[in-house]
Design goal:
Elements (H helix, E strand, L loop, with lengths): L1 H60 L2 E6 L4 E5 L2 E7 L9 E5 L3 E8 L2 E8 L4 E4 L5 E2 L2 E11 L2 E8 L1
Parallel strand pairs: 7-10
Antiparallel strand pairs: 1-9, 2-3, 2-8, 3-6, 4-5, 5-6, 9-10
């Protein structure tokens, strides 16, 4: 009987410790994933701010500029709106949060389902964005070129390479 008690005690202690280790691993994984997603969102916000700054610089002074895009997610231009989107576990409101709103540009973000969305768009009376090539990119370079000015509206071409 004494031998059976020791075996039962060992099995119970083993099961309890296994459950605790498993619970800690699941908890740590969630925290790790939240940190990864928070860093991705922060990098996307920094990228969009840098892109906005370069687009405005090209619109004012002409020429061209480029910016590398290497964040896990997609970047696209559709109907004059540049949008970054990526799956994320970070809790954000379902309504738009405006990060920057000026006379020229607006940057906003929200969570839609399981996706994080970050948008940059311009006052259509000031800057018109367009592309003639690829409209979506996962990793690559965004090239910004001043095309022309028509009736005070600066046309900016974006190239996703």
């Amino acid at each position: 009987m004494k031998g059976q008690t020791e075996i039962v005690s060992f099995i119970l202690l083993f099961l309890i410790s296994s459950i605790l280790v498993f619970s800690a691993a699941v908890w740590a994984n969630n925290i790790f994933q939240s940190n990864v997603d928070a860093n991705k969102i922060s990098a996307a916000e920094s990228f969009i701010n840098a892109l906005d700054s370069r687009i405005q610089s090209v619109a004012r002074f002409g020429g061209s500029n480029s910016l590398d895009f290497s964040i896990a997610g997609t970047l696209k231009l559709e109907e004059g709106i540049i949008e970054f989107s990526s799956p994320s576990s970070i809790e954000l409101p379902a309504e738009w949060i405006y990060l920057n709103k000026s006379a020229f540009s607006t940057i906003r973000e929200k969570r839609e389902g399981r996706n994080f969305r970050l948008q940059l768009f311009y006052n259509p009376e000031e800057i018109d964005l367009f592309t003639e090539g690829t409209r979506i990119v996962s990793v690559g370079t965004v090239t910004i070129e001043k095309n022309e000015t028509i009736n005070g509206i600066v046309r900016i071409e974006l190239k996703f390479e």
